[in-house]
Amino acid sequence: MIVKPECVLGLATGSSPIGTYKGLVERYKAGKISFAGVTTVNLDEYKGLSGTHDQSYRYFMQHNLFDHIDVRPECTHVPNGLAEDAEAECARYDAFVRSLGCADLQLLGVGRNGHIGFNEPCDEFVVPTHVVDLTESTIEANARFFASRDEVPRQALTMGIGVIMGAKKIVMVASGADKADAVYGMVKGPVNPQLPASILQLHPDVTLVADKAALSKM
Ligand code: F6R
After folding, report:
1. Which positions fall inside the Glucosamine/galactosamine-6-phosphate isomerase domain (predicted)?
2. I need a labelling partner for 133 at 20 to 30 A (CA). Which of 28, 62, 114, 151 fits?
């Protein structure tokens, strides 16, 4: 059943949503769903990577979802990693997502260090969409996708906590033992910017989809 054919979907990259995207493509190919009226807004993009770089998040989205469904290309949005003025691009993107009323449904993964989008552990929650220095933990975790650790970009453009929390519904997917500490802290710990996902405790409609390994510290 399609509840809102013209919805705004907030999308994530990484390994966590791949199964979700496969399932959506299967349903689309079986004629069960259409994305013709959908607008998508992605969480983040590496600074310095073009959309054609095979590790850019734009490229990931094209190959894992957009190229296989009927979403209109002009309705798919990812921050521009090549923008000359990355801060201005973040401000533009933030205003754009807000102009849509934020996502109807935001899909999230969680970093081993508890990041959401690329909102890294920090002394305070960063509300606006911003340029962020990736932590060593994130560079390490994402090195698996690059030829070498040195090739992992050191900065990214990420939706801030403001527009993520502005989503009407949030679905987080977490799997594997390396997410267990983050999942525990997110659900049971105090709301703390050192574990950014803990802010989700303050959101009224979050669904966590996790495997046993990710829940093993609960
Ligand atoms: C990706 C993103 C990140 C990932 C997180 C988990 O767009 O925003 O927060 O969701 O790093 O990555 P995976 O799923 O690869 O473990």
Report:
1. 7-201
2. 62
Residue 158, H or E segment: strand 155-158
Closest CA to 19 of 65, 55, 54: 65
The CATH code of domain 8-109+129-174 reads 3.40.50.1360
Cα(14) to centroid(ligand 1), Å: 5
Pocket test for ligand 1, best of 15, 18, 49, 110 (most atoms within 8 A of CB): 110
105-153 confidence digits (pLDDT tens): 999 999 999 999 999 999 999 999 999 999 998 999 999 989 999 999 9
Q: What pLDDT, in 10s, does the model give residues 61-81? A: 999 999 999 999 999 999 999
Cα–ligand 1 centroid distance for 140 (angstroms):
13
- Phi/psi of residue 119, nearest 5 degrees: -75, 100
User: DSSP assignment of 103-120, as one string?
Assistant: -SEEEE---TT--BTTB-
Cβ–ligand 1 distance for 79 under 6 Å, the answer no
Give percent above pLDDT 70 in the chain. Answer: 99
Exposed/middle/buried for 23, CB within 10 Å: 0-12, 13-18, 19+? exposed
Instruction: Please tell me whether the overall predicted TM-score, pTM, comes out greater than 0.80 for this model.
Output: yes
Helices (H), 41-123: 57-64, 86-99
> Which atom of ligand 1 sits closest to the CA of residue 158?
8
For the record, the structure tokens of 109 come out as: 């993964």
